[in-house]
Amino acid sequence: MLVSRYSLRSALILCCAGLLAACGPADKQQVSVISGKTMGTYYRVSVLGASKSQEAELREKIESQLKEDDHQLSTYKDDSVLSRFNQYTGSEPQPISQGMADAITTSLRIGRLTDGAMDITVGPLVNLWGFGPTKQPVKMPTQEQIDAAKKLDGLQHLKVIEQSDGTYLQKDLPGLYVDLSTVGEGYATDHLARLVEGMGFSDYLVSVGGAVVSRGYNEKGRPWQVAIQKPTDKENAVQAIVDLQGMGISTSGSYRNYYELDGVRLSHIIDPKTGRPIQHKLVSATVIASTALEADGWDTGLMVLGEKKAMALAEQQHLAVYLIMKTPDGFQAYMTPQFKTYIRKADQG
Fold it and tell me: Which of 9, 64, 164, 175 is the most buried (most CB within 10 A)?
């Protein structure tokens, strides 16, 4: 389960002005770029054809939207909507926004399809291993501690209730702790994309952390492109480049957010079944879907499953997936037929 706030991952590189060179003749319209920090990571909004006044208005609306999203999902702020729900030990349905309901419903569905690999209720395990609001442990958690934390999770204990007067979230396990870090970036990215479109812009690229949504064309008159980063600590090392074609994309990787304890490298991605950080050979999973939220949920579940189960499920569900595995000879990539249609032709083969 991705954590460290909303996860400091940067496995996708935006192929726009100032990063990777785009192709084609320049257009008279310029790209306005608005960027900053949010949710423990970074955001970037590139919009074609915005005036100075529109850019200023857009910046203000972006900051307001991100502040609201953080207020909804943060586990670092005691007064956030999610933190208040986690602190509540009763069983009465608690009011939540429609946006949060959509994020949780999507997470629950993907959780079921991945046989619990994508589990937004593993907050106690995430915190135990030091990837949540709590500090990193000074020694390896014991099996007893892991077992105790596992008793506090389970997707079956969480329910979204739609009523005529609003949307509610209910739990039947008092200690249930929901952590939406794994879909937080996709959640916020989709919101920013809708915000940009609401202002009348049809050519843009939006990213929050490792989640990206694009529509239309860049200043070169070409579709926005995104590069999948090689599983290395080196910045801007490109594995493959994709044309999003108006879709959302998200990458989860085990090689960026980690720490070492007792000589063991511990990834921020926790396997709900073992209660421990993943140890398999799959180091990166990239998913393209209709929304960044959907892609953001799937990439984590596939990372938890490992290479063989992830491949099988991706093919079964007809997902557009790109996986990178560590081998004795380096790294090996695998992609589903659905993903191949997005690969830039110059990079195929």
Answer: 9
32, 47 in Cβ contact below 8 A?
yes
The CA–CA distances, whole Å, from 258 to 39, 114, 237, 269 equal: 18, 23, 19, 9
Return the residue matching tokens 């389960």: 1
The enclosing H or E element of 300 equals helix 292-305
How far is the C-alpha of 116 from the C-alpha of 42, rounded, in Å?
29
Q: 259: Cβ–Cβ under 8 A, 6 or more apart, which residues?
A: 130, 136, 265, 266
Residue 298 CA: distances (Å) to CA of 75, 125, 305, 319: 21, 20, 11, 9
Reported pTM? 0.87
Question: What domains sit in the chain, N to C, each tagged with a CATH number?
Answer: 1-349 (3.10.520.10)
Match 């442990």 to its residue by tokens: 137
Report yes or no: 133 and 127 within 8 Å, Cβ to Cβ.
yes
Q: pLDDT per residue over 208-261, tens digit each?
A: 999 999 999 989 888 898 988 776 655 556 778 999 888 999 998 765 555 566
Contact indicator for 272, 153 with CB cutoff of 8 Å: yes
Residues 71-88: tens digit of each pLDDT = 999 999 999 999 999 999
Strands (E), 244-301: 248-253, 258-261, 264-267, 270-271, 276-277, 282-289
Q: What's the CA gap between 346 and 349, in Å, rounded? A: 9
Q: Are β-strands 211-215 and 248-253 bridged in parallel, bridged antiparallel, or unpaired?
A: antiparallel
Beta-bridge partners for 14: 226
Spacing of C-alpha 68 from chain mean position: 18
Strand 258-261 and strand 248-253: the pairing is unpaired
> How far apart, in Å, do the first and last CA atoms of the chain sit?
32
